[in-house]
Amino acid sequence: GEEVAQTPKHLVRGEGQKAKLYCAPIKGHSYVFWYQQVLKNEFKFLISFQNENVFDETGMPKERFSAKCLPNSPCSLEIQATKLEDSAVYFCASSLFMGSPTDTQYFGPGTRLTVL
Amino acid sequence: DAKTTQPNSMESNEEEPVHLPCNHSTISGTDYIHWYRQLPSQGPEYVIHGLTSNVNNRMASLAIAEDRKSSTLILHRATLRDAAVYYCILDNAGNMLTFGGGTRLMVKP
What we know:
The structure holds two protein chains of two kinds.
Chain A: E1 5-7, E2 10-13, E3 19-24, E4 31-37, E5 43-50, E6 53-56, E7 65-68, E8 75-79, E9 88-95, E10 106-107, E11 111-115
Parallel strand pairs in A: 2-11
Antiparallel strand pairs in A: 1-3, 3-8, 4-5, 4-9, 5-6, 7-8, 9-10, 9-11
Chain B: E1 9-13, E2 18-23, E3 32-38, E4 44-50, E5 55-56, E6 61-64, E7 70-75, E8 84-91, E9 103-108
Parallel strand pairs in B: 1-9
Antiparallel strand pairs in B: 2-7, 3-4, 3-8, 5-6, 6-7, 8-9
């Protein structure tokens, strides 16, 4: 598609439950990024992919967070055993190229995760 | 990554020009200056980027100081739809974007 699609729009989980978020990048884009926005303006980079390969996962909390981008499927971000502090808006972005500082990232509308 | 400093908030009247400043005194020679904005309840969207020369596109203009230690995003005629948080970001690697606090722009009718 012409836009980055994210589902679901909202997700509510009880503490300890699993949460799975999905992202369909723009058709033809090979690079996918996940960001977490906790407070209104505070973004944290989580992970990036080049096709199905992890490119940079320096922002991923290792214990409970995992992500995949498989061929012909939406990318996914999964949080096992959610905690209250995981409540945030999770944004996915895609880009045609990566590795050049002139690349543009296109963001999806986000998934708001609320952990109760 | 080199850091950027922006005012927390700015106000503008509708249909007037807006100049959003960004300081980046530790910018390196290979850092590009990017601007993204986040409209309420939406994901960030690209606005403009530049290296040394001033840049114009349909959304905005980017004025870059000669020493590159600061830049200004110019919206020529602010509309209510331009109310957003504007982020100035330096990038030299084309991987993740490092967002700072941004400037919340309020546009008064």
